[in-house]
Write a structure and sequence with these properties.
Order of helices and strands: HEHEEHHEHEHEEEEE
CATH topology of the largest domain: Purple Acid Phosphatase, chain A, domain 2
Structural class: alpha/beta
Distance between the termini: 56 Å
Number of helices: 6
CATH superfamily of the largest domain: Metallo-dependent phosphatases
Number of domains: 2
Largest sheet: 6 strands, mixed
Strand content: 15-25%
Length: about 240
């Protein structure tokens, strides 16, 4: 430290550490005082009305299997589902003080993407008319809501509709408050059925929790595979400027 005279470099370093430690201790003591006062004021009888845990995922991008090789213990939808179950169990029920707690699971989109895994889904759907692997896997995780991301339009609106329809009876709400699907028959039908909407309300431990979703307007174009042209997600799904 400059401005402090010491006999040698070692002494200078020791003094620097000591001064820094005293300063840090003072900051910690100052910051901790309000928290301690708040706990005293709260008292033992006061309880939290409700604890809400929000579990969130994004950019799954068809990573249905692990990374393979030395990374075989990394990634994959099975491992993700196991972790979700663990965290959902921890965040649901009651605390030791009897305070209610609940958990919601949401996705901000980009759940499938061009690559070997999704190519397998497309082939399966074309040959057998079976749902995409992505739809089957994600439907088993029980999302409360899923936002529609820009990459959901990489293969066109009909592939997005097929992805949503593939969830079957376990379809969560797909959210986008700023897209107009009236020009896309299959997506418009899903909107009419209430599967695509701008917002939704879920119930957790007798509480109503509102969830709103929007699709980014910063990416007007998404890169499609080499066999397709570049698609503009907003060409027929125009953002609503009034919302």
């Amino acid at each position: 430290m400059r401005g402090i005279a010491t006999g040698d470099k070692l002494g200078q370093r020791i003094l620097s550490v000591a001064v820094a430690a005293m300063l840090l201790a003072g900051v910690m003591a100052t910051a901790g005082a309000p928290e301690a006062d708040a706990k005293k004021k709260r008292g033992k009888k006061d309880k939290v009305a409700y604890w809400l845990t929000v579990l969130h995922s994004n950019d799954g991008e068809s990573r249905l299997i692990d990374a393979g090789g030395e990374l075989s213990d990394f990634g994959g939808i099975a491992r993700f589902a196991t972790k979700v179950d663990e965290l959902r169990d921890q965040g649901t029920g009651r605390t030791r003080k009897g305070e209610p707690k609940g958990t919601v699971l949401v996705s901000s989109g980009d759940n499938f993407l061009a690559g070997p895994e999704f190519n397998a889904s497309l082939q399966r759907n074309e040959e057998k008319d079976d749902p995409y692997y992505d739809s089957v896997g994600l439907s088993l995780i029980d999302f409360d809501a899923m936002t529609i991301g820009n990459h959901e339009f990489d293969f066109g609106p009909d592939v997005l509709a097929e992805f949503i329809e593939g969830f079957g009876t376990d379809t969560p709400k797909f959210l986008s408050a700023n897209l107009d699907f009236s020009g896309e028959p299959r997506l418009a039908a899903l909107e009419d059925d209430g599967l695509i909407t701008g917002s939704t309300i879920v119930r957790k431990e007798r509480r109503r929790i509102g969830i709103v979703g929007a699709t980014t307007s910063c990416c007007p174009r998404s890169r499609a595979p080499a066999t397709s042209r570049w698609r503009t997600s907003s060409r027929r799904c125009e953002p609503r400027s009034t919302r």
